[in-house]
Specification:
Elements: H1 3-9, H2 23-34, E1 45-50, H3 53-62, H4 68-71, E2 74-80, H5 86-115, E3 119-120, H6 128-135, E4 142-150, H7 164-167
Antiparallel strand pairs: 1-2, 2-4, 3-4
């Protein structure tokens, strides 16, 4: 898919077919996330790959009962790891850059999912502490977003976007 086609094809999908994600596609998604830019190229984030049904069900519960998470064959959990950049960027690296790094990597993964003909939705509503416990993060590593990934089980309507006139503010 061409880049702009990928951008326009991406939609938030909350229903998945009971079909596994091919390993080569999953690897491409992870490699794309790994190629994302990060502050100082320090990659102050971690990605947790979840496939076990009981763990996916627990993630769904931790995400305010968003049960579609458990139906996806794969869930990627993107987490901050500020220890990777705190030496260089101190407080701002801890508070902001690690969140940005994880978010950009998650966005790259989301676009790769779409380019490969798969579907996902960014999940940000969840208990940080509960998700961290489920995936077993070390102290200081905080979940930022989850991407349940699979083949689409629905075709959502395109949602309206703000006009550029409303969204963009030129500084003069």
């Amino acid at each position: 898919m061409e880049f702009f086609d990928v951008i326009h094809a991406r939609h938030s999908i909350r229903a998945f077919q009971p079909k596994e994600v091919e390993e080569d596609k999953l690897r491409q998604i992870l490699e794309t996330a790994n190629a994302a830019p990060s502050a100082g190229d320090l990659q102050a984030y971690e990605i947790y790959l979840v496939r076990k049904p009981e763990q996916k069900r627990a993630l769904a519960r931790a995400a305010l009962q968003q049960d579609f998470i458990a139906a996806a064959p794969v869930v990627l959990v993107f987490c901050t790891n500020p220890s990777r950049n705190q030496g260089r960027y101190r407080e701002r690296g801890i508070r902001l850059y690690s969140v940005q790094d994880a978010s950009v990597a998650c966005t790259f993964a989301m676009l790769a999912v779409t380019a490969l003909g798969l579907a996902t939705v960014w999940v940000g509503a969840f208990s940080d502490e509960e998700v961290a416990r489920i995936i077993g993060t070390p102290k200081g590593v905080t979940p930022v977003a989850m991407l349940p990934i699979g083949y689409a089980g629905e075709t959502p309507e395109t949602t309206p976007r703000r006009s550029l006139r409303d969204l963009v503010h030129e500084v003069k």
